[in-house]
Write a structure and sequence with these properties.
This protein has 97 residues and is mainly beta. The chain contains three helices and five strands. The protein has a five-stranded antiparallel beta sheet, with no helix packed on it. The longest helix has 6 residues. The radius of gyration is 17 Å and the shape is elongated.
Length: 97
């Protein structure tokens, strides 16, 4: 199965554990996240990415995928095809040059 590789910026929930003061609870912010993966599925509501996949036995229906993440579209703040990543986000690739 051929899948596009995409980069997604999104906002995730954050929580505190245990007992906290009102000031500590008010100080908690949402977490900005960045994910790069193979685009397995896109619906009206969500994007499903997988981090790894193998098609070594695809003809027998034994394709395997690992580490799927489903990101709600309302949480997505930015996305780009990896083929466009170099021009759109050069700072992300700078450490690898």
């Amino acid at each position: 199965m051929k899948m596009d590789i995409i980069y997604v910026e999104w906002i995730d929930s954050t929580s505190l554990h245990g007992w906290n003061s009102p000031a500590e609870a008010k100080a908690v912010k949402v977490d900005p996240c960045r994910t790069v993966g193979f685009l397995l599925q896109e619906t009206d509501d969500a994007i499903t990415l997988v981090m790894s996949h193998t098609s070594r036995d695809e003809e027998n229906g034994r394709e395997s995928m690992a580490n799927a993440v489903v990101i709600p579209k309302f949480a997505v703040t930015n996305r780009s095809c990896v083929t466009n990543l170099t021009s759109a986000f050069p700072e992300l690739l700078a450490p690898f040059k």
